[in-house]
Amino acid sequence: MQKRRVATMKRVFADLHLGLNVKDHAATLRMINKAATLGYRLVAVPLAPETHADEIAKLRAVCNEAGIDFASRVDLRPRTQNELMHQLRRLRRKFEAVCVKCENKAVARQAAKDRRVDLLNFPLLDFRKRFFDRAEAELASNSLAALEIDVKPLLVLEGPVRVRLLSSLRREAAIARDFQVPIVVSSGLAKEMLLRKPREMAALAFLFGLDEASALEAVSQSAGAIVKRNREKLSAKFVAPGIRLIKEGKDC
Amino acid sequence: MKRVKRRYLALQVDSDGVPSRKEVMDAVWGAVTRLYGEHGASLTRLALIDYDMEKKTAVIRTSLATLDLVRASLASITSVADREAAVHVLAVSGTIKALHQKTRQQL
């Protein structure tokens, strides 16, 4: 009898928002080692827009030493749509993940429909500025943007504020699911002791209504897909979506 | 009466000090109560089975129906006995024997 081969795919867990101060090398090293110990295989750290390629390479080397992959990320905080477009033109090709912190509705809408934006992040405690409604989700579903949810406030807040936040997050997660907008669950943490294992992050996502499969996807595939897509686009061999340079030279 | 299915969780307490058995359970109960209230906590049927102070590992029991709820509560613990701490889940199993096997495999 022929044996059935069962393909087992090991999940690559990712945290796309480690809130590190990269100038503090000792703390950075500790956090990266801790993330590796907890089971992450890909981390991203928000960097300043003017960060030099050498600094990114150094961070990548530190992560590789710890056995994890590193992705460069930039957080944009534009005040207007034009400012957002300008920043995207300037920075898109420098970073592997671009997150837009949406402080007003016009910026949120523009970010949701722009295919250069990877992550949409909303102020966690200013509930009037959480613009992820059905219109925003519809725009995001037609582009490539994912909704990023940081678990940091779920760990540090207590009482009515956390209750209200959970209520907002549950509504937003339901909208994202309806419009098939990917959700990325990140830590947003800067303290070692607050870092959680990927499966614990998924357990926290249960609090805002994600089932186990969606929650695990939010800490693995959703984040990994963003980095993979952008690395392909940033590679020298990329021509257009679906077209890449295989070989060049006189013998072609 | 329908038999209640149980799950055993192996936990690792990550903290600077060495918390006592009572302090660990107080932190777990506190987290469950904060997130789900007294009614929710009463449904979990939480019980501490074993605690190794040296290794700072614990085994707790809960009902299968409230496993997700307990896991979320454990992940939300940030302090044990007023000291910064984290409680990590090492393994989950339906029997203590299988739990120990899983934990040994991990270590």
* Most residues in contact: chain pair: A-B, 18 and 17 residues
How are the strands of the biggest sheet of chain A laid out side by side?
Answer: 1-2-3-4-5-6-7
Secondary-structure content class of chain A: alpha/beta
Residues in helices of chain B, as a percent range? 40-55%
Q: What is the 3D shape of chain A?
A: globular
What order do the SSEs of chain A take from the amino end to the carboxyl end, as H and E?
Answer: EHEHEHEHEHEHHEHHHEE
Helix content of chain A: 40-55%
How does the major sheet of chain B shape up? 5 strands, antiparallel
Strand segment tally of chain A: 9
Strand percentage of chain B lies at: 25-35%
Structure, explained:
The complex is a heterodimer of chains A (252) and B (107). Chain A is α/β, with parallel strands linked by helices and 252 residues long. The longest helix of chain A is centred in the last third of the chain and has 19 residues, at 160-178. Chain A is globular. In chain A, the strands form 2 sheets. Chain A has a 7-stranded parallel sheet, sandwiched between helices. The N and C termini of chain A lie far apart (47 Å). Chain A has helices spanning 25-38, 53-66, 81-91, 105-113, 134-142, 152-156, 160-178, 198-205, 212-218, 221-234, and strands at residues 14-15, 42-47, 69-76, 97-101, 119-121, 146-150, 183-186, 238-240, 243-244. In chain A, helix 4 runs parallel beside helix 5 and helix 8 (198-205) crosses helix 9 (212-218). In chain A, 40% of the residues are buried. Chain B has 107 residues and is an alpha+beta fold. Chain B has helices at 21-44, 67-75, 96-106, and strands at residues 6-15, 47-52, 57-63, 79-80, 83-93. A 5-stranded antiparallel sheet of chain B has the order 2-3-1-5-4. In chain B, helix 1 packs antiparallel against helix 2. The radius of gyration of chain B is 13 Å and the shape is globular. Chain B starts with 5 loop residues before the first strand and ends with a helix. The mean pLDDT of chain B is 93.
